[in-house]
Amino acid sequence: MPTMPIKSDSQRGVALLTILLLVVSITVVAGAMLASQKIAIRRSGLLFNQNQLLQDINTGQQLAVMMLRADATLNDTDSEQDIWAQPIPPYPLANHSISIELRDEASRFNINNLYHEGEVDSAALAVFQRLLTQLNLEPDIAIAVLDYQDTDSDVYQDGGDESVVYSQQMNGAAESTLPNQPLVSIEQLQGVRGIDAEVIATLRPYISAIPYYVPININTASPVLLAALMDGANSEQMEGLINMRANQALASIDEIWPLPTLSGLNTEQREVLAPLLAVDSSAFMALITATDSSGSTDSTQAKQRFATILLSKAAIDDGVIQDGTTANHDNNKQAKEITVVTQRLWAFRPAF
User: 67: Cβ–Cβ under 8 A, 6 or more apart, which residues?
Assistant: First the structure.
């Protein structure tokens, strides 16, 4: 009877090594698959959280619109006494929260007021020049800002070629072509001759860049901006106006003319200033902060996303708001509609 051959030690070693290599390969592949799966799960979680934060921002935007709409039904003015100007507590949503800050853009000088409807607004230009003087800045900066946005190719009241001037003086930039259109942000002023980061930091609290004409709201404007309405005035002389509006919002521009500082203006001067002024606002900026605190015990580690929302408030004539509802005309108030002009997302909290 034949006997079975006995495997040699070398054969057994090769078989064992093969098995070990197979086990190692399976382990490596399984580990790679597990790591890839963890990355995919984490990526999905991050995308979900980001999408949730974006939804929170949209919710905050809707809340801001609703707040301004509700305020518009109460009165025809915008002042520090209104509900939009009061601190708004964070709005909780499970492990998320939404914070809203609203700012009246008409409390500042809109640099796009310098040129609108195809013409230079000389009255607005004079106010901006006086504002620059109030801030110890060169008044010629106003001319540079105007040239940056007007549609011609000549330096205002000088006749020189804008491209030549800018190629010589434009903050060291190689590009000398001007956009000749409204500015879309304060940061864009870095491309204007005579303006650097320090000048922008000085101007930022007093100016805005709204893509349409926005009169100055005398109920919210700073004393410095109010002083720029006339030659030789200073912010201290505007305390009477500040105290008056602190007690009650001014319902008409005519209420400011009897003030000692402004009483010296003649009828023609008042008529020049009147179109630049208002007692309400046609533009608001909302800062929305969406916070995700899930999975974090430390508030400093919470995920956040920011957005700035430009909101327009405009009178409507037909009494019907865009969502189809009928506007309230009680007490002879003119109906107003709040619309979103722009939304800008930020990974960090912007200057506000």
Answer: 83, 84, 88, 100, 102
pTM beyond 0.85: the answer is no
E strand map for 250-327:
277-278, 283-292, 303-315
Give the whole-angstrom CA distance, residue 96 versus residue 288.
Answer: 13
**pLDDT tens across the length of the chain (352 residues):** 555 555 566 666 677 777 777 777 777 766 666 666 666 555 554 444 667 788 889 999 999 999 999 999 999 999 999 999 998 899 887 788 999 999 999 999 999 999 999 999 999 999 999 999 999 999 999 999 998 898 877 777 665 666 666 655 454 444 556 778 889 999 999 888 889 999 999 999 999 999 999 999 999 999 999 999 999 899 999 998 999 999 999 999 999 999 988 988 999 999 999 999 999 999 999 999 999 877 555 555 578 899 999 999 998 865 555 555 545 545 566 788 999 999 999 988 998 8
The three-point CA angle 129-133-139 to 5° equals: 45
Tell me how far apart the alpha carbons of residues 183 and 42 are, in angstroms, rounded to a whole number. Answer: 41
Please tell me the distance from the alpha carbon of residue 208 to that of residue 203, in angstroms, as a whole number.
9
Burial classification of residue 303, based on how many CB atoms lie within 10 Å of its CB (0-12 exposed, 13-18 middle, 19 or more buried) = middle
Nearest-Å Rg of the Cα atoms of the chain is: 31
